[in-house]
Specification:
alpha+beta; Cytidine Deaminase, domain 2; disordered N terminus; 10 helices; single chain; 7 strands; elongated
């Protein structure tokens, strides 16, 4: 599901809509103004060590989740920090390490577990919160992203797909108003006309009643320049869409930090 289009908003909506952090709203603990210590006397930096006006959960309650940074939202889920870092600092470290919320979303679970300060419970909470946010945008029509241009489609998938080590072909299913109904995995492997079954591109679209699709695949090399096979596959998909009365609006190739619209280049679209 790009931060600029949705991941930060997704995350905020999760915190606000499902009240996943309400368990952390106990206001009875007074600010101690000093480092908390565990039984072994090693300092553990907690959110309650921050001044009350700087505590993420208090700021969320007073100002709403939209006012919080991604690091602060993560801190609410983390609850406590580690030796030398409070929860907000741990959250910022995770964002820096993985390249933002999108990077955390696509990082393998085991890789998160390797981060200092994360156990299975915290890693699972973070993964679940981001995934719930992604699903929330696809659950209600008014919250679904609207595609008005190739850039709108690219920004939804670019961060995740640019980091994939294999080629993946996906379809963005759209309704009559160009709201994104779903993003479905169609194929994994080399995208060429001899291996891609064109019918698979439309299976989910027909089942869901989608009237239009945007096809997206990535180039693990990082270079989004379309290959002859990309053009051939595009041409076959467009023709099949006409027979099924499902419009193929575009085929995007995602590279590292760049993407290309085959329709804008007139490749595979007559």
């Amino acid at each position: 599901m790009a931060e600029s289009v949705g991941f930060a908003i997704f995350f905020c909506r999760v915190v606000e809509s499902i009240k996943a952090v309400s368990v952390f709203y106990n206001r009875s603990t007074k600010w101690k103004g000093q480092l908390m210590t565990e039984a072994n006397t090693n300092p553990v930096y907690r959110i309650t060590d921050l001044h009350e006006s700087d505590r993420p959960r208090e700021r969320l309650a007073a100002l709403g989740p939209q006012a919080l940074s991604n690091a602060e939202l993560l801190a609410i889920l983390l609850r406590v920090g580690v030796q030398g870092e409070n929860a907000v600092q741990v959250g910022q470290r995770l964002l820096n390490k993985f390249g933002g919320l999108a990077g955390i979303h696509r990082a393998p679970f085991d890789e998160l577990l390797n981060e200092h300060g994360l156990g299975e419970a915290k890693a699972a909470q973070i993964k679940a919160a981001i995934e719930l946010g992604r699903r929330l945008t696809l659950e209600s029509p008014e919250a679904r992203p609207i595609i008005n241009s190739p850039a709108d489609a690219a920004v939804l998938v670019q961060y995740e797909m640019s980091a994939l080590e294999q080629e993946h072909l996906r379809g963005l299913l759209l309704d009559t108003r160009n709201h994104v109904m779903d993003i479905v995995e169609v194929y994994q492997g080399s995208v060429n006309s001899s291996q891609v079954r064109v019918g698979e591109v439309f299976k989910a679209a027909v089942r869901r009643g989608s009237t239009a699709v945007i096809v997206v695949h990535n180039h693990p090399s990082g270079d989004p320049t379309p290959s002859p096979d990309d053009v051939a596959v595009t041409r076959a998909i467009v023709q099949a869409g006409k027979l099924l009365d499902v419009e193929v609006l575009d085929h995007l190739v995602i590279g590292q930090g760049r993407w290309i619209s085959l329709k804008e280049r007139g490749l595979g679209f007559s």
